[in-house]
Write a structure and sequence with these properties.
Elements: H1 7-28, H2 35-42, H3 46-52, H4 56-73, H5 76-79, H6 86-103, H7 112-120, H8 125-153, H9 161-187, H10 193-211, H11 223-230
Amino acid sequence: MPRTLDPEAHALRRDAFVDAAIGLIASKGYEQLSIQDVLDELGASKGAFYHYFDSKAALLAAVVERMVEAATATIEPIAGDPCLSALQKLQAVLPGIAQWKGQRPELRPERLPELMETWLSDENAIVRERMRRAVSARLTPLLVAILRQGITDGAFSVSSPEGAASVFVALILGLNETATQLYLARRARAVSFDDVKCTLTAYTGAFEGILGIPRGSWPGVDDATLRPWFD
């Protein structure tokens, strides 16, 4: 008699492999990660692993999917909120992503520098690139809808919402990586606080330019926000 598959148990066990991989990628990098590392972390067999994934690459795809879903889950309610203006929605996108990062259990404050260095290392280059592509694919349509709302309301001067959304997402991803690099550089005292503020402030002007909104419409970076991270 064939064995009956419990879908919930199957999903939970698969999630356990993804959870283990996320933690190991954060601590040692994807290139250094082996399937055996994941098995050792869970006390699982190779047969169990290959029941869910046919390769390390398939596990990576599941990891990226999980991370992107978690990140965009904080954005989707904002994009669909009828009580928010288009500008308010866009201004909430960055804090929404930051909130997702803050909720990740592996990002404990004492481990943050180590994890950031690992994330930016060559060992995680493929993970970063997969994340960029996946986040862009998921986030761009949400931003297109927001930009169309702003165009209809007369808040934005944008000729192509699709093109502007693509550039806006690229800026968000660039800002995220730049802020991470500056955080590490500031800890090493390689840059000053003023250098950090000047670099991050440049993104404010870029956001305003993409949207075609008056200078000063996008909230600038202030010392009270930056100092806990960069002072």
